[in-house]
Amino acid sequence: MSLTGQAFYYTTIIGTILGITATLLLWSRVRGVGVLRALQRIGMLVLCQVCAIAVTMTWVNDQYGLYASWSDLLGTNGSGHLVMSGPPPKTANFTSAMRGSESTFFRGPESRLAGEVFVWTPPQYHQAAYKHDRFPVIELLHGVPGEAQDWMTKGDMPGRLARMMAAGKLKPAIVVMPTLDPGGVDTDCSDTPRAKVATWLAKDVPRLLDRHFRVMAEPKGWALAGFSTGGFCAIKLAMQYPKIFGIGGGMDSDPFNGDPTVLTDPALRKANAPTTLAAERPPVQLFAGTSVQDHWSPPSHITALQRVVRYPTVLAPPYILSGGGHNWHTWGSIEPPLFAWMNTVLAPPQNMKGSGPLGGVFRKILHP
Asked: Distances from the Cα of 327 to the Cαs of 206, 296, 307, in angstroms?
C-alpha cells in the first residue's frame, strides 16, 4: 500500500478506531497477576497512541509532501532518482510576490520534484464580467543557468504581456513562470533516471494551476514560450505533450536534435529531440526565432526542424533577426512577433457558466 494517498490514511484511522474499541472491551478482561495485568493495559494504551500518531503523521505527510514513498521514508531508495520535499498542489499556499504576481513552493506528486512557481492573473480574471470564465495559460520557461524570477527582474514580465493585453494585442491569459530545473538538475526538460523534469513542467505545474485558478482545459488554451534552454523546452514539451499544450514558441533555442552535454545518453537524447518527436506529427502550433549573429542558436537549428515537421504540426515562418547575441536584448526583440503570433492561435477566455464540471482528456491526464 502506498505511503501517500487516501487508502493508507483511512487505514490508519480505522486501525486507531479498532485499537481504542479493543482497549475499552478488553480493559477489564485482562488476566494474570497484578504486574502482568498492568503491562497488558500499558501495551493497549501504547498501541492506541501509536495508531493516533500514525494518523497525525500520515495527514502531515500528505499535506506537506515530506516523503513520497516507503523507500523514501526508510532511506532505501537506491534508484538515484531525485526526490524533494514540499507541499502538494492541493495545499500549496500562494503569497504576493514581485511585479503583481503570486508565488508558491510546491512538490509535484508525479515527478516528486519541488520548486518555486510565479503566477500572474490579468485584470479581467477579477472582473465581474469574467467571473465564470476559464482563462488560457502562457507558461514562460527560463534559461539554464537561470531562475523563474529572471523573467521579472531581467525580462520585464509580466508587464510586457500585460501591456499587450491592455492594447488588445494579446488575449487575456494567466502567466505562469515555473522553475525549469528543480534542484538545479538540468535535463533539457526531459524525464531521466535522475529527475522527471518533463513530468514536473507538463503535468505537475498544470495540476497546480488547475487546482488554484480558473484555467482552460483544452490544449489550444495552453501555450509555452521560452528562451535558450527554455526555448528548446517550449517547443519540445508542446510536441511531447500535445494533449496538454497546443502552442510552443522558442527564442534562441538550443539545438533541436538535443544537447549532448546535457543528455549524454544518445538514445535518451534522441527520444527527447524535437527533430525526432516531429515523426509523431503532433497537432501543435510552433514558432521559432533567433539571430544570425547568435552562435549558440544559429538559424540552421530552425532549418533542421523545418525539414522534418509535417502537418498537422505547424511551424510558423522562422523569425530571424539580422543582429543580436544570446541575451535579453535579443529576446526582447523577438518577443513582440512571438506573442503577436501567439495571439492568433491562443484561445480566448471561455465562459463556463452552466456547463457543469470540466471533463475530457485534460482532467484525465492531470488527475489519473
From this structure: 28, 11, 27
Read off the pLDDT band of 66 (50, 70, 90).
low
Strands 314-315, 285-291: parallel, antiparallel or unpaired by DSSP? parallel
* Bridge partners for 118 per DSSP: 103, 177
Backbone angles phi, psi at 163, to 5 degrees: -70, -35
Q: Angle at which helices 328-345 and 159-166 pack, to 10 degrees?
A: 40
| Mean pLDDT over the full length of the chain | 90
Whole-angstrom distance, CA of residue 190 vs CA of residue 178: 15
Q: What are the domain boundaries of the chain?
A: 6-64, 89-366
Q: Is the bond preceding residue 299 a cis peptide, omega within 30 degrees?
A: no
| Cell numbers 491569459: residue | 173
Give first-to-last CA distance, the chain, whole Å: 17
Q: What is the 3-state secondary structure (H, E, C) of the chain?
A: CCCCCHHHHHHHHHHHHHHHHHHHHHHHHCCCCHHHHHHHHHHHHHHHHHHHHHHHHHHHHHHHCCCCCHHHHHCCCCCCCCCCCCCCHHHCCCEECHHHCEEEEEECCCCCCEEEEEEECCHHHHCHHHCCEEECEEEEECCCCCCCCHHHHCCCCCHHHHHHHHCCCCCCCEEEEECCCHHHCCCCCCECCCCEHHHHHHHHHHHHHHHHCCECCCHHHEEEEEECHHHHHHHHHHHHCCCCCCEEEEECCCCCCCCCCCCCCHHHHHHCCHHHHHHHCCCCEEEEEEECCCCCCCHHHHHHHHHHCCCCCEECCCEEECCCCCCHHHHHHHHHHHHHHHHHHCCCCEECCCCCCCCHHHHHHHCC
| CATH (residue range 89-366) | 3.40.50.1820
Do the Cβ atoms of 302 and 275 come closer than 8 Å?
no
pTM equals 0.81
pLDDT of residue 32: 80
The predicted structure's pLDDT at residue 11:
86
Alpha-carbon distance 56 to 13, whole Å? 9
